[in-house]
Amino acid sequence: MSLSKITPSLFLSGADAPLNRALMTRKGITLIVNVTLSHSCPTYPGVECVRVAVPDLPSARLSEHFDRVAARIHNNQAGGTLVHCAAGMSRSPALVMAYLMKYKGVTLCQAHNWVRQSRPSIRLNAGFWDQLLDYEKRLYGKNTVKVAAPVEVPKMPKMMPRHSLRECPKSPRLSWFRR
Q: Any idea where the Tyrosine specific protein phosphatases domain is (predicted)?
């Protein structure tokens, strides 16, 4: 069971962590953002669950939930927030990165480095990257991450990025992208 601390009150995980009631209590979780199709929200006293039923597919419109989820995380004054998807690798990190951009004032590049430092296993799908790029452009009027054309790799797992990163200032942790 892996629970990654993003900020003192924001955590990221896969679907197993919210099932551990003792862990939720110990971390002071009062809001769970469940970004899965198949996992139900646990019902614990004093814990609210927000459901974002989006598949982990490049064509899924996760960006439709960026503002609503970011605002909900920001407004959770009662305690900690846990954002989770099935594996804690694609959907939930994308939502956390959107929150960091909107409410912590960081760029997409910085948000990615921030989340990846706490949870090195993140692997957003190409569609979620595109949506985060659009979101960053909407928030800041420019992009800090430049991507090349999609990289064609036969039998590529769906969780691996299909873009190669050309430039991301001060981002040595983006080594899983080809430069």
A: 64-122
